[in-house]
Amino acid sequence: MKLDSKIPEGHISEKWTNHKNNLKLVAPNNRPKIDIIVVGTGLAGASAAASLGEMGYNVKAFCFQDSPRRAHSIAAQGGINAAKNYQNDGDSVYRLFYDTIKGGDYRAREANVHRLAEVSGNIIDQCVAQGVPFAREYGGMLDNRSFGGTQVQRTFYAAGQTGQQLLLGAYSALSRQIGLGRVQMFNRHEMMDLVKVDGKARGIIARNLVTGEIERHSAHAVIIASGGYGNVYFLSTNAMGSNVTAAWKVHKQGALFSNPCFVQIHPTCIPVHGTNQSKLTLMSESLRNSGRIWVPKKKEDAEAIRAGQLKPTQIAEEDRDYFLERRYPAFGNLVPRDVASRAAKERCDAGYGIEANDTNEGVYLDFSTEIQNKGKQAAYASGNHNPSPEEITRLGKKWLEEKYGNLFTMYQKITDENPYETPMKIYPAVHYTMGGVWVDYNLQSTIPGCFVAGEANFSDHGANRLGASALMQGLADGYFVLPYTVSNYLADDIRTGKISTSLPEFDEAEKRVKDQINSFLSNNGTKTVDYFHKRLGLIMWNKVGMGRNEQGLKEAISEIDALRAEFYKDVFVPGSADELNQELEKALRVADFLELGQLMAMDALERNESCGGHFREEYQDAEGETLRDDENYAFVSAWEYKGPDISKEELHKEELKYEYIKIAARNYK
């Protein structure tokens, strides 16, 4: 199979504009003749469905939640990037493009990333017009803050709930189209399989999660916007329902799956507290603007803290190791996520962790310095040039509360500790997946008519995503890319007519789904679905997690293969198919995670280098930094499904060519 990325000719700053000018169009009077299915209603899916509905297409939108408002995009906290240079600190489209390529450790496609940077400013304008309440400065201009991997302030935010506010904006646009009848919304429905007719994506098989009914839905094009696959690790910051099923079913129908081993570990999450925990909680990266990350310099102090004999506030300043500031002075606490995560792991592996959990893994995120600095500034601004220490602390805490209050409240409710008084405990956790379905420049997979948007595709982040870029990509794809590229594809379908759901291809797809459901329900197993999911998660975290090596990856491949066989033999799924059955839902999703987990380990084993979130312990320099191999591994890995034996998947390579950025070793020091 030859991969054609369809990157347009011309200078990179003109590629998207020239490409748009030459795409085919569908006339307004022809759009009502065409049906489009959108799977997922997070930022990418909701914005795509709303935009295509506004254009006049007939859209069917599907989500497994009870409302599009509960899509996992709502959980994003810190902000959304855009190159508007409101702070006048040197930002530009090129700078955002460069930071994204560098942050992704030179493993992203140049043309896609530049387009993302180009349309970023339009996203902010669109969201402001929708009423998204971005934070504003004293003069009324939109405020910005910094995020990891940058030296400018380009992150627009709404307190610590940016994802929620952006999703409400997209949801309002979607709701308008639902009200006008242009979008038909299917809540509590899960895509079970993709239907291809004559090689083209022509519909899906969906399961009504309330009644259990298996439904057929046809369309002229299908858009997958179902998010990432972080829950393959069981413990992650993803919502419990987040899964890979839609993307994986597309893969099994012929779409290539790219860079599955590129997984982002977020450095600021609340540490694991016990073996019965079912998910992890993210503390926004925006907190690294104000917090300083440290561990004790002395092992005995770390041991005393873990034993409850010493409090962090009792550790003198000179006895604290601000290890990010020490190792990366140019960026300090705002290094990219993969760099910060590995640095925290290194300190904890060396015995300096401060959390009294099974692994002693945890570091501090301390706001005491910021409280003093902002308190002094606030006092001075109010005319008090000689404030008392109590006044400084009071004003500093008030400033923090205005900036991050909901995050601090959430942390205190979970941990029963006051982060204004004592440092937060944090540790890296699985957060985002850069890999996904391979798409070309038009966001079309290797299946004609099957488009993939947002975190479900691989296209924009390389081996590591910069903070605040997920929301940017989702909205860019849905509002500003797919309306052009999907229309270009559909221009040839205005005479096709309605796609019948009585075709034999729909019969075959429905039979595949029903057979799998019946096999689970008739299985006389003894173990729960979660039993197998947790075991998979432990294999993935320990051997395909933050640190990877050849032996561990080979063991993971073998262990997951054996676990998968045991799963089908011994899983127990109670209940029936024609009812609300959450165990059945989980079984179907975990079946896909088991296959994906094996492919992730295979992909990591194949890539003999360290880059971004993929850290092979054999490939690091003397200071523990990543060692890329640009001569042999400057490519996108794209895997082709070859049947139930995942070890038979075939690797294809899309070579990455850098014409406008000089490829170099990442340096944040």
TrEMBL record:
Domain FAD-dependent oxidoreductase 2 FAD-binding: 35-471
Annotated signal sequence range: none
E.C. numbers: 1.3.5.1
InterPro entries named among the record's database cross-references: FAD-dep_OxRdtase_2_FAD-bd, FAD/NAD-bd_sf, Fum_R/Succ_DH_flav-like_C_sf, Fum_Rdtase/Succ_DH_flav-like_C, SdhA/FrdA/AprA, Succ_DH/Fum_Rdt_flav_su, Succ_DH/fumarate_Rdtase_cat_sf
Gene3D superfamilies given in the database record: FAD/NAD(P)-binding domain, Fumarate reductase/succinate dehydrogenase flavoprotein-like, C-terminal domain, Succinate dehydrogenase/fumarate reductase flavoprotein, catalytic domain
UniProt record, GO biological process: anaerobic respiration
Organism superkingdom: Bacteria
Active site (catalytic residues): R337 (proton acceptor)
This protein's UniProt keywords: Cell membrane, Electron transport, FAD, Flavoprotein, Membrane, Oxidoreductase, Transport
Domain Fumarate reductase/succinate dehydrogenase flavoprotein-like C-terminal: 533-668
Principal location listed in the UniProt entry: membrane
Catalytic activity line of the entry: a quinone + succinate = fumarate + a quinol
Gene Ontology MF term list: electron transfer activity; flavin adenine dinucleotide binding; succinate dehydrogenase (quinone) activity
EC primary class: oxidoreductase
Name by which UniProt lists this protein: succinate dehydrogenase
Organism, as annotated: Flavobacterium fontis
Taxonomic path: Bacteria, Pseudomonadati, Bacteroidota, Flavobacteriia, Flavobacteriales
